Amino acid sequence: MSDTADRDPEFAFELRVCRWAERAWHPDGPRPAIIARQLGTRERRWDTVVVEVDPEAFAVRHALSTDGFDSDLLRVVRHAPAEWAWYRDAIPEPDFPWRHVVPVVHRAAGRGLVEKRRGSRNRVEYRRITPYPDWVERIVAIENKPNLDVSAARALADQLEHDVSRALADEVWVATEATGRRVEPALLEDLPVEVGILAVGDGSTEVLWHPSKLTPDSDDARRRLVLAERAYDRGWRSYVDTMRPDCRHFELDRRGMALVPRCVAKDCYQSQRECAHSCPSFEPEPPAWRMKGWPIEGGPGKRVRRILDDRRERVRERVGESAHESR
After folding, report:
1. Which branch of life, at top level (predicted)?
2. pTM to 2 decimals?
């Protein structure tokens, strides 16, 4: 099946870009990284986010918890003191009432991330179990436009100008479908010169234009770390959480290096928008499917989720182990 026949080619292309980045980041040479999709801030959401990591520090972060930390939990864990201290002495003053911090300290202790106790004057005190590591090295944003024609480039230009001027990411790229022409059309479009351009094919990826290195504002350190924690938590395979893999028509189809969700009923690589509870073609898995070699607690749909979860965990472990491999 070709992308030209897809109902939503950008979604399938986006997953292919994520899988390529997971296997072969960075174009200038291997760099340990984790990949996520559809992340950003209130002002801007990126298609693909690459978080380059320090492997040793990442292994420590992974050992701390396999789940990501939201902004509140990050504040508590990151500033947990080595010795017992009143939480208000340990954490920088937030821009909201202190009473909202106490439940988060209890939540962190409940997850085994910190220790807590009642200290003098019945104050809540806590201390760290393991220091929160400095695991994030760089954040890279990638916009995915498989068909980067003139109108698409014009619409994208303003967003990219914002990314470059805002500099929340260290690099900004545009990924487009390789056409095989002598001069790729993406090079002829009016995009900011600071933005890199990738031509992505099924079997290879070519750098058409190298990006400029941006300088993030030091005041954005916390926002960048929150973004990295969300990337760590979700990865890029979390798309299945909002789809219906328990439908008899749902399957994962290999496209290049990636497994892309495909709908047999519609004969297309579907998107999260199409593969939803409101889909008129939805048919639940027959009960018999859950009894033929599949675990009793679920059929193929459950198996799809486990496959994607297992792959995400294997990638995390491999990134952490890369520190030992490079010695």
Report:
1. Archaea
2. 0.91
* Residues 199, 186 contacting (CB under 8 angstroms): yes
Residues sharing a CB contact under 8 Å with residue 225, sequence separation 6 or more, in sequence order: 74, 78, 136
pLDDT digits (tens, 9 = 90+) for 293-320: 555 566 788 888 888 999 999 999 999 8
* Residue 219, Cβ density class (10 Å: 0-12 exposed, 13-18 middle, ≥19 buried): exposed
Mean pLDDT of all residues in 46-50: 97
Contact 234, 242 (CB under 8 A): no
Q: Cα torsion at 29, 51, 170, 220 (round to 10°)? A: -160
59: enclosing H helix or E strand = helix 55-64
According to DSSP, the residues that pair with 143 across neighbouring strands are 174
Q: Which structure tokens are listed for 23?
A: 């296997």
At 253-284, the pLDDT tens digits run: 988 788 899 999 999 888 888 898 888 999 98
Q: Find how far residue 204's CA is from the centre of its chain.
A: 22
Contact indicator for 64, 92 with CB cutoff of 8 Å: no
Token pair in block for residue 263: 């709908």
Q: Tell me the helices (H) and strands (E) count for the chain, helix number first.
A: 8, 11
Count of CA atoms in the C-beta half-sphere (13 A) of 27 = 19
CB atoms within 10 A of CB 221: 11
Regarding beta strands 136-144 and 124-128, do their DSSP bridges make them parallel or antiparallel, or are they unpaired? unpaired
Q: Are 315 and 22 in contact (CB under 8 A)?
A: yes
